[in-house]
Design a protein that fits this description.
- By secondary structure, this protein is an alpha/beta fold.
- It has a single domain (about 15-265), classed as Alpha-Beta Barrel (TIM Barrel), CATH 3.20.20.140.
- Helix content is about 30%, strand content about 15%.
- It contains nine helices and eight strands.
- Strands 1, 2, 3, 4, 5, 6, 7 and 8 form an eight-stranded mixed sheet that branches.
- Helix 1 (about 30-40) links the parallel strand 1 (about 15-20) and strand 2 (about 45-50).
- The relative contact order is 0.17.
Length: about 270
Amino acid sequence: MKTNVESFESGRLIKTDLHVHTVGSGHGFSTVSENAAAAKSAGLELIAITDHGPAIPQGAHNWYFWNLSHVPGIIDDLVVLRGCEANITTDAHLYESTWGIDVADIVTQRLDYVTIGFHPTTGYDGKDKAKNTAALIKALQSPFVDQLNHPGNLIEFPFDVDAAIEAAVEHNVIIEINNSSFNPLGVRTESREMEIDFAVKAYQAGATLSVNSDAHHSSGIGNVERALSYAKEYGIPIDAFVNTSAQSVIEHIEKKRHRPLLSASKEK
């Protein structure tokens, strides 16, 4: 399988991967340096390190995310966004979050890229649609949240799709199409149709989309072909995706808020 994915319309490439894990997630298998080397080898311009927050088993502590300032923002000309995949959780008060997630406000406001998602064992396993919707919309309202991950996982975590998309558009949160949702060996294979249906509705509503690997090993970084194939089939054009270049990603996220780590990296 090719890692660089040629556009099915304009000949451009998907040049960034905005959902990548390391050993910091507890169930990832590569380091930041290994991921950066793999991304560079694949011809990518930018990756976002988005390790899981502490509410998930073996997830990283808030101190881990605070200490990401020690990770270079540029490695071998590759832009590395220091971020997280925060869990929407019922225990947000334990993590000093105003927005119902497990990474503290004081941390998320300084990270380069903040993604959110529902995950098992973090508090929303009861399939209460109204409760899930309220929690998701609260998280989407955070001024520090940039992306909603694998939103098609509606079997495990049902919520009001239209309300979520409306909130994402209002608060300029990117909607992800997650390539792992289309992996026949993955844990979300039953939700792949809902993943692409969600993306189509989001695109029609004017949301910004991204397509990402959700790689938990460096070999998967940039692998988004399955997701792009579905996007093509369902009529989503390549220009709907923000991650066709590092420049487009940076321009998009800097419109939302100041990012102190990213700004410091650019000044070096």
